[in-house]
Amino acid sequence: AQSVTQPDIHITVSEGASLELRCNYSYGATPYLFWYVQSPGQGLQLLLKYFSGDTLVQGIKGFEAEFKRSQSSFNLRKPSVHWSDAAEYFCAVGVSRVRDMRFGAGTRLTVKP
Amino acid sequence: DAGVTQSPTHLIKTRGQQVTLRCSPKSGHDTVSWYQQALGQGPQFIFQYYEEEERQRGNFPDRFSGHQFPNYSSELNVNALLLGDSALYLCASSLVEGRNPEQYFGPGTRLTVT
Questions:
Q1: Could you tell me the fold of the domain covering B5-107?
Q2: Cys-Cys crosslink for B49: which of A80, A85, B8, B68, Cβ 3.0 to 4.6 Å?
């Protein structure tokens, strides 16, 4: 069965420091991969997506992610974190052209001043 | 260009009652998916509607049902509410065909069952 694992429940980084959020998936074929961000009490905003092609994808707000097929990973990175990046981050895998999206449990990011 | 809208924003119901949540998709989208997000968890796929029919369903009981109207808007109905149904219910819309099949999410409806 398809599944998504985000190993880190909570991460704290200092403002200006770099960030990497981990995501591993289990799926038989090349999946559609997504990262979403959710602020408290809000819906989900798409940060970036991978469908095919270049394995390093750029998203909004300075985020990027790299698809590594050999490791079944799609880690999210940002070179310099801003206080406004504090939120919950979800990795998701899309099955059958996104008819059924599976989400990880999320990683909560706290940014220290 | 309006995004995905959901109503109501918040809802409080009693165990055993029934509830209806509503969703209007992003302009131009024809597919609506519903997700349940319990506190501290990721969204769980409930079902997806296209052409007024349910075409994919997650692991949810028959108490959860839905409908899609000709204008592509959708309703989620939950019967015989349980305490465990308390969650944020998210609606997402997409295009069944197209170069970018990602889903756009609404702000959600917070359901509390007491």
A1: Immunoglobulin-like (2.60.40)
A2: B68
